[in-house]
Design goal:
By secondary structure, the protein is of the alpha/beta class. 49% of the residues lie in helices and 18% in strands. It starts with 10 loop residues before the first helix and ends with a strand.
Length: 568
């Protein structure tokens, strides 16, 4: 369906832009991942940018949904719509808390810089072409200030070029469409020149991956204001023939050059701290490693750095304020920081299972069943690079990948595609909960033909209904009505079905609703801190009311929810 162009940068334009940017990055994700050679050739820049914008778009949708429920009329555009300031701030906040990787963190600061102009208080609204020009300039400057040591030939260069071109268009009294077109053209020209500014790009024969992502985002801005879809963007000086081959060759070349070896860990966390503490944090982190980017403000920051001592980076955050959503990724085997030939080769297994699990208890359960696990702590979903590393670690010719989370579908798909370029046969089973993964793993038989095993595991997962009992963090609208902060929520197959005041009673209601459609086995996974008495009550309920149904209980550890329930 054709996009209806927006005239001014109002709340609807923010919403439209986020949606179109997400679609554009979704299309370009694999291409961007494949050309990712700087600052680390870990093949996940496209996915990180996608996840960053996905978080921004979700935050904007939440603001619109809240106004629809509340029936507010704060914007002249009509009742039930947020103001441009609310939408822009939501976009910036969503990007900040969801920022992934080096480029995603910089993109979050670019969006925050734009939001600061769009949401600025005053009598003159910054929603026309001149306002867009100001927003793009402020965004480019804010991003540079957030990076400890700016490097030309990166997304920062592309952002500055976009702002320069936008100023020229705005000087001619251009509207938002004219300014967006000019910014896009300036960004494309700067992107094409990045190999001349950064040696690692020239050696690989590709443009900067982060800059390529920003061009996609600006292309979505053009479509927002004109309805036009910009053409394809070249990612290399010559025809782009083999994404994975280019990235692999670049990684091998970098690994062969000791002088380009870098830190072993990527550390990212959100931080609640004041400006003075963050200034001291920058000084503390800078000598520890490289790729230091600190973005945010107003008491909330996103900290990204590559270091050898991950503990010291986290400790610095503790000294500065309250770090949380701490995520530490090791640049593992096969990436730019790993020397070749350190370990003797070992024979590959024929088949393996790689699974994302939400808690330490389930990680042990899956490992006991022979799976290679990736731990997803609450609020810290793994990036595609981590999943690719887990597939490599499984060291098998054939791999069955269980994401165990609906929100990981794009990340898992990106990881599977990357692993396939390395000659590994990967089947992605779209499990949406760890209990579905348990059901799939229970019927896994490595001796069967690969396709037959995948079909059997997929059928077992699909036949398993899943539920989650958790606590609402804030007031919000749900499919079961409006919940308040502190309410106990029962989600069945991803949708809120029960809103209660007490854990055991809510869990029993959820279980009864699931078993109303039949079942033979109930799987209960208790979260860390959930009393064992909850499981005992549910087991008793099954014995008393559902005589032909068996029950099994596991301890999941710190999994983010009070308990998970599966019914097969």
């Amino acid at each position: 369906m054709a996009q209806v162009p927006q005239t001014f940068f109002d709340a609807l334009a923010v919403r439209t832009w986020c949606g179109l940017a997400l679609t554009a990055l979704g299309r370009a994700r694999e291409e961007i991942d494949a050309i990712n050679v700087y600052p680390v050739a870990d093949g996940d820049t496209g996915t990180n940018l996608y996840l960053t914008v996905e978080s921004a778009a979700a935050a904007v949708e939440a603001v619109f949904a809240a106004h629809e429920v509340g029936g507010g009329d704060r914007d002249p555009a009509g009742p039930g719509k947020p103001s441009v300031a609310e939408a822009a701030r939501a976009m910036a906040h969503g990007a900040l808390i969801g920022a992934r990787g080096n480029s995603g963190t910089i993109l979050a600061q670019l969006l925050r810089g734009m939001a600061q102009v769009l949401a600025a208080d005053g009598e003159t609204p910054h929603t026309d072409g001149q306002g867009l020009r100001l927003a793009l300039r402020h965004a480019a400057e804010a991003a540079r200030q957030a990076v400890a040591h700016p490097v030309e030939g990166t997304v920062l260069t592309v952002a500055s070029a976009a702002a320069d071109a936008a100023e020229t268009a705005a000087a001619a009294v251009g509207d938002c469409g004219d300014v967006a077109r000019a910014a896009y053209r300036g960004a494309r020209a700067a992107l094409a020149a990045t190999p001349d500014q950064l040696a690692v790009l020239a050696r690989a024969g590709v443009v900067d991956a982060g800059g390529r992502g920003l061009v996609a985002v600006l292309g979505a801005l053009v479509e927002t204001f004109t309805g036009e879809t910009p053409g394809a963007v070249a990612v290399s000086g010559a025809a782009f023939e083999a994404h994975a081959r280019v990235a692999d060759e670049a990684a091998e070349e970098c690994a062969a050059e000791p002088e380009e070896d870098g830190p072993a860990f990527e550390v990212i966390y959100l931080l609640e701290a004041d400006d003075a503490a963050v200034a001291r944090l920058r000084e503390r982190l800078d000598p520890l490693g490289d790729s230091l980017v600190v973005v945010g403000g107003d008491g909330l920051w996103n900290v990204h750095v590559h270091v050898d001592d991950a503990g010291a980076a986290v400790e610095a955050g503790v000294e500065a304020g309250r770090p949380y959503r701490i995520r530490i990724t090791h640049f593992g085997a096969g990436d730019v920081h790993t020397a070749r030939g350190e370990r003797p080769p070992r024979e590959r297994a024929q088949r393996a299972v790689v699974a994302v699990v939400p808690g330490e208890g389930l990680a042990g359960l899956y490992a006991d069943a022979g799976a290679t696990t990736v731990l997803a702590r609450p609020g810290e979903p793994p990036a595609s690079g981590e999943l690719v590393e887990a597939v490599r670690r499984a060291h098998a010719r054939e791999v069955v990948l269980l994401p165990n989370d609906a929100d990981l579908r794009h990340t898992a798909a990106a990881a599977a595609e990357q692993a396939r370029t390395e000659g590994i046969r990967v089947a992605l089973i779209p499990t949406r909960s760890a209990v579905q993964g348990i059901a799939a793993l229970a019927v896994h038989e490595p001796e069967r033909r690969f396709d037959e095993d995948v079909v059997s595991m997929t059928s077992a997962a699909g036949a398993t209904r899943y539920a989650e009992v958790t606590v609402a963090e804030r007031q919000s609208w749900t499919t079961a009505g409006i919940c308040q902060a502190g309410d106990v929520l029962g989600l069945i197959d991803g949708d809120v079905a029960v809103i209660g005041a007490e854990v055991t009673a809510t869990a029993e209601t959820v279980l009864d609703r699931m078993l109303a459609a039949g079942g033979e086995l109930v799987t209960i996974v208790l979260g860390d801190g959930t009393p064992k008495s909850v499981a005992e009550h549910l087991e008793h309920r099954v014995r008393e009311a559902y005589l032909a149904v068996d029950t099994v209980v596991y301890r999941g550890g710190r999994q983010g929810s009070l308990l998970l329930i599966g019914v097969e």
